[in-house]
Amino acid sequence: MATIKNIKEFLEEIENLKSKNNLFFRGHEDETYLLEPGVYRKDNTTKKNLIEHEDVIYREVISKAPQDFVGKNTLESLALMQHYGVPTRILDLTESALVALYFACSNSKNDDKNGEVIVFDIPTESVKYYNSDRVTILANLAKCEKDFNYNKFIIDNKISEIKKLEKKKIDTKLYDKIRDFDIDVFTFLMDKNEEIIEEFEDDILFKSFDKNLKKYMRIYDKMFTIKFDAIFINSYVELIQNHLRSEINKEIINSNEMYFGKLLHNIREDKSYFDGIINPLDLPKVFAVKPKLDNPRIVRQHGAFLIFGIKETHFVGFGDYKPMAELNTDWILRGNPHKERIIIDKDSKDKIRKELNTLGFNQSTLFPEIDKVAEYVRDKYKW
């Protein structure tokens, strides 16, 4: 764990990072803060979970300040709300390490607490741009009522079966003479398709797979003579996997009809052309989002954010409303739950603020609105 007392030490720590993907940063004034969006925190006064009122909060803000949201879609509206302190399902990030350091030190009221800079190393497949359909889906969860729910048990189960079957395949790269495809094997398996699938579906505990496979290999061998076991085994496995993929697609369509009617309606308010199918597997995701740079504050802060989806729940009636998607802790390069953390020494915060100010990182440069600039100038000259 590194305890930072000046900018030089901080930059040395950043230079030593070993990133494999895309670096993002977040600064916490208090090292005990959790990585969770504002809407998943409890109200300080009522102690109620704000998530119960997410859709009301979203619409209330727009109804009170409609002029600020003209022409903005749901994601852009959430980003604007987030930057002005409204609790949302967004968690702010920055692509600038020094901006994150500023936020870890910015509020002198918390100078009695150690700060922290969290470093994320996020895979490219989980980094999206502002116009991604998958991001639009998660953003529109904000407009869904608290009892919104879905179920993906059947899909998860079939995906698990596909993975189990993959282990039954033989790596043909180990054999120089083996082809990946044989027309006789393909024709035979297609003729036996219904019978094979029916037996597989009846084999709930996966106990008869090897027995059934050997049965069909014997039948085929009498007809054509098996040249390579690997071709037959892999083709047999792939036949069943394709069946499972087809069943998953059917279940996705069923889920859209059963759970996602209102969500689809919300999405089409943003994208009228959206006629796609919502994949339930996308809902419990967390994505890093690079926003549209149409806001001076986002530009100055090199802003980005995490947007959180929701997990499925079977206990809505017991207050488990729109449960927060889990952040992949493998993305965290520095910060909890890892031992390697970048802690900002509480006794050095004022010194670091002055160093950052010298480098042009202060309230007036990172918050270019007139009220923030005025506050900075007032504090600087103490009137």
Structural features, described:
The chain has 383 residues and is of the alpha+beta class. It has 2 domains: 2-149 and 264-381, no CATH class; 153-256, no CATH class. Helix content is 43%, strand content 11%. It has 15 helices and 9 strands. Helix 4 (97-105) crosses helix 13, helix 7 crosses helix 10 and helix 10 (229-259) packs across helix 11. The relative contact order is 0.19. The mean pLDDT is 91.
What characteristics describe this protein?
single chain; 383 residues; alpha+beta; 2 domains; 5-stranded mixed β-sheet; 15 helices
- Summing up helix and strand content along with how strands pair, one would put the structural category as alpha+beta
N-to-C terminal Cα separation, in Å? Answer: 40 Å
Instruction: Give the total of domains.
Output: 2
The major beta sheet can be summarized as: 5 strands, mixed
Low-confidence stretches: none
Helix content: 40-55%
Mean pLDDT: 91
From the alpha carbons, calculate the radius of gyration and give it in angstroms: 27 Å
Strand content: 5-15%
What is the global morphology? elongated
